Amino acid sequence: MVNEVGMIGIGRMGFGMSQRLLKNKIRVVGYDRSKENVDEIKKKGAVPAYSIEELVSELKSKKKVVWLMLPAGKITTDTIKKVLPLLNSGDIIVDGANDFYKNAEKNAKLCKSYKINFFDCGVSGGIHGLEKGYPLMIGGSKKEFKHIEPLCKALAPSKGYGYFGVVGSGFYVKSIHNIIEYVYLQGIAEGIELLDKKKIDLVKATEVWQEASVIKSWLIDLTNKALKRKDFKDIEPNIMSVTIKELQDTKKSVKGYSPAFDVAVKIRKDKSNKFVLGKKTIAAVRNEFGGHKVMKK
After folding, report:
1. How far apart are CA 94 and CA 121, in angstroms?
2. Mean pLDDT of 210-232
3. Which CATH superfamily is domain 4-167 in?
4. Which sequence positions are flagged as catalytic?
5. Ranges of CATH 3.40.50.720 domains, the chain
């Protein structure tokens, strides 16, 4: 059974995930380009590593597991290239970058050339994951999955992780999750705009919806919380979404039809003075669940 992991990327997500693993008695060796981040996770009980080489050397398991929580794209691929020569045949790399699923397939081929097992893992939960758990969507070798499952159990809420098939499946499921989030937030934003047309109390309406209405959800809860913020009026209607291209590529790759998602993307890109309250609402709720930055006046 795997009871340790090397975590590369001790940022907003990686730090919380490392803490949750530690709380569940998993030994964590942590590395980040920021020395301050490494020093901070050391205070939480992790073994600090100040280079990738040190991180790999500190892993004691016969089958080493290195988990990457880095931005999707070049930085993740470049890091994988640095890690691979340091590992032994049969070791495991888990990529939690929430990337386009076809990029996972490319990185898996790279790992295969070193006889390293690769898993793509879509991670949700945002800044609330430390407390509530991180839902995980995993793709890779079914045979090898048992080696990382103890880590998944430690990170996720009860029934909050799933193996979905071959490499790319994890990121694909996470992309669909994000498309649903775009559409759901767009629907909430349109509702807020329409309520405001009649000067309805927005906080009261969302509060009434919270407990037992057919649209009750965590996102409604967070909308209510966002609307109560003292700085809500100062939030700019700019939605800084970095996942748009990835999600559009995912849809295009399977010739998907998702018109509501298309509208949501159009609104997120829109810089006009239309739908201002709706865009402010989306930006504020994204800040509440994921810590995504908001611009203020």
Report:
1. 7
2. 97
3. NAD(P)-binding Rossmann-like Domain (3.40.50.720)
4. 174, 181
5. 4-167
